[in-house]
């Protein structure tokens, strides 16, 4: 799996092949295919297992500060090299290969969503969030604007950007009474 | 370009090739390559020119209603077959091919962002939006959660989902005073 990441970093995901990974790892092609049925799944496994980032939430009692520090950590990890381009390539592959999308959701997105909801539920109980904020939307609302920047506009994902997004989400779009 | 879309719908973007498009269109391969340097750009052009959806905003004087009807139109177009899977494939390709990402932003995302900001600016002037809502974030905040659903969780993009997102964005996450 290290060979996969090394090759992807050197020449990009598009040029990655099972054959090249096998050659770099010094094993036969069939050994690779036995374990991973596709390039996408090999890449998913390589990314998730080499890189076990702690993207959990602190609980300092201040939900805004805790969200901010977690999102800064996520941006530091996924917003730039080396992981940013590889993560983007993985998300690109997930649009073509449903097994990659399913694996990514099961192993990364859903556990992350569960942690987000848990932290926000505590905050809601403590009166730090609106009592009718829909927790099922938490992940989409909080991380959607980050993915929009990462995948669509592909502009730099900075601390300043996510701070402004958090402020806007907390304040809401409606005029204050 | 019709041949490109027909083939992509029949067998998926991953299996699409310049050769197959040329054969289906009854022209030589070089004719295709002369006009489009890559499969991604051919696909982008085919999608954007065959399909000129009106994703503009009405202005009924009620910004919430206007946003809702525009987003419903976008979801109807991009949330399901036939365009949904093709648009997802295009966004997938944009993660691997920077020329596709640049073309998509220039020809679709940025004009759409400009229209969104224009409609929201009017609403802000009319007191229907918070006076300090950051218009530069409008596109990311409003459409980020939709792209999250379309590209990441890949769960169905429904009117109900976008209605709930709009309500959450308007109300904000912070507790009401």
Automatic annotation (TrEMBL), chains A, B:
Residues within the DNA-binding region(s): 17-36
Keywords associated with the record: DNA-binding, Transcription, Transcription regulation
Highest taxon in the source lineage: Bacteria
PROSITE patterns, alphabetized: HTH_TETR_2
Start and end residues of each HTH tetR-type domain: 1-54
InterPro entries for this protein: Homeodomain-like_sf (IPR009057), HTH-type_TetR-like_transc_reg (IPR050109), HTH_TetR (IPR001647), Tet_transcr_reg_TetR-rel_C_sf (IPR036271), TetR_C (IPR011075)
Protein name, UniProt field: TetR/AcrR family transcriptional regulator
Species assigned in the record: Actinocorallia libanotica
